[in-house]
Every structure is written in C-alpha cells, then in structure tokens.
DUF3017 domain-containing protein
Amino acid sequence: MSVEDAADRAEEAEEIEVRDPVSAPDAVGRPRRTTRRFPLFTKDTARPEGGGRAAPGDAPAPARQWPVLLVLGLVGVGLLITALDVFRIGTLVIGGALLLGAVLRWLLPSVGMLAVRSRFTDMVTYGGLGLVIVLLALMAQPSPWLTIPFLKDALHFTVDS
C-alpha cells in the first residue's frame, strides 16, 4: 500500500459521520450500525439448563428421555383412572406426577425434554401446578378429604342459598 492510498483512506475516514451513539465504523471504515436489539429471526436457541440426555447417546431414544416419559406415563394413567370414574384418585395421580417432575428436575443433572426453561422455573411450575391439582383433588365435593375452614366461609359468603 502506497503513501497516496494511505492518505486517501485517511481522508475517507475523516468524512465518516457518526450520527447516533450506536454507530461504529467496521473493519473497512464504513459506518456500521451495531445494535443491542435481538434479530427479527433467530437462527438457533440455547438448550435449557439440564436439558442434555438423561442416558448415554448410544442408548435408544426412549431410554434417553426416561424422566419425561415417566411423568407423561403417570399423567396418562391418572387420566385413565379419571375416565374410569374414580375422579379423586385419578387427579391425585396427575398432581403427584407433576410433583415427581419437579423433584426429578431438582435432583437430576440432565432430564432430557423435561427441561423446558431454567431449572428454578421448571421446578416452580411443575411443583406449583402439581400442588394445586393435589389440593383441588383433596377438596373436591362430595365428601372432601381435606377441609379448610376459611375457604368454606369464603364460599358461603359469596354464594347465597
């Protein structure tokens, strides 16, 4: 590169006008807009924490995903029990399956497709939904197995006979 070329490049660099604080010249010297915004279309996504295989890679696919298959299998059994007109037991099995999913997410380092979000969010979601389903199953009418006095008072306060 000659001295004249270097002088021309220096003049071009002086002509660059940066209009906003996020513009910066690229390697060639042209202003290039760099932004902190996410792109409109993402090319890939990050795997959730603990989203690796639950078994070695040479194992068959069902063995690699045993945690989610266990939880889904128990939910299926609970739905079948509920469909056979044993409502309370079936919903207890469904809630217990979700609680089991929360415990598996907490204890195991890799749970395969049971990992959807961060570990904390998955545990709170599975545990919260499982707990609510179990409590609703225990308080279902007729003849609830669990009675909470202030809820009974709130119901009688809102519903007039």
Q: What stands out?
A: Residues 2 and 109 are 60 Å apart (CA to CA). Helices lie at 3-15, 61-64, 66-83, 87-107, 119-139, 149-158. The two ends are 95 Å apart (CA to CA). DSSP finds six helices and two strands in the chain.
